[in-house]
Structures are given as C-alpha cells and as structure tokens.
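Tokens in:
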C-alpha cells in the first residue's frame, strides 16, 4: 500500500508541475513535464565547465520549471542567485532567437559568454552562431522582447 501511495503521490506531483509549467507561458523551454534544460544542471556549466546531468533527487522549482542539480551545493548556489545560472532566452536556441524563432536549446551545445549561458540547437547551428556572437545576441535580445511570451509553433507560421 505504501508503494502505491508513493507512486500516486509522484504522479500527482508530476502532473502538478507540468500543469504549472504550461500555465506559466512559454518563456522557459521546459518539457511537457516541466523539466528545464532536459535535466542538465545549470550551475555545473560554470563550476565544472561541462554539460552535466542533474540528479532527479536534487531539484528545485523556479518560475514553474523544474531544475535538476548534480549536487546539493549546486542547488544552493542556484537558489541563492538563479539569474546567474539560467540560460539566455529561457533555454531556447540563441541562434534561433536571433532569427525570431524558438527552437529547443540542446544542453550539450552551449557556451558561456560574458558570464551568461547560451544554448544552441545543434553543432552546426552553434558554429554559425559563434561566427558573430555579439551580432546574433544583439538581434536575439531585440527579438526576445517580442517572442518571449509566444508559443514556439506560433512563430513558425
């Protein structure tokens, strides 16, 4: 019976998180379950310098998205100053945002520029973005003001 209650409680929590993430809008690239950054630890990019999967047991909810962390220390650092670790453009592809679209940012294609984490869709896209990071980021910053609250599919029309 306890296993059943745990299972039901876990499912209820997942549904609540997903519902919260969907209700929050589309500023943050989170899966239908509300999981941000495909479960990668946003702090690890800055501390260990590589994409690191977070532990499903070490999480925090921020802006209705669930973040996972590789360690309790990373969770504490994030909770103290989330803006220092959150990826630009809600975790959507930096190059795509510069083009006026919202494509999934792949946490394995990343770069820190001026202490800000940027994600891109793929290796080819990241290489193109790296050809003019300041120019693309300037365009992305302007576009983000118009597209942050729009559904990605809406921008494809």
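Residues out:
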């Amino acid at each position: 019976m306890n296993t059943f209650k745990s299972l039901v409680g876990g499912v209820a929590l997942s549904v609540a998180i997903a519902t919260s993430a969907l209700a929050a809008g589309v500023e943050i690239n989170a899966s239908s379950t509300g999981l941000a950054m495909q479960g990668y630890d946003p702090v690890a990019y800055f501390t260990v310098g590589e994409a690191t999967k977070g532990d499903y047991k070490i999480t925090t909810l921020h802006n209705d998205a669930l973040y996972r962390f590789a360690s309790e220390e990373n969770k504490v650092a994030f909770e103290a100053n989330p803006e220092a670790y959150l990826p630009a453009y809600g975790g959507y592809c930096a190059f795509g945002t510069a083009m006026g679209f919202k494509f999934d940012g792949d946490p394995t294609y990343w770069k820190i520029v001026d202490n800000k984490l940027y994600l891109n869709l793929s290796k080819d896209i990241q290489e193109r973005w790296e050809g003019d990071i300041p120019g693309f980021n300037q365009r992305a910053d302007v576009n983000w003001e118009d597209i942050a609250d729009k559904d990605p599919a809406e921008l494809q029309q």
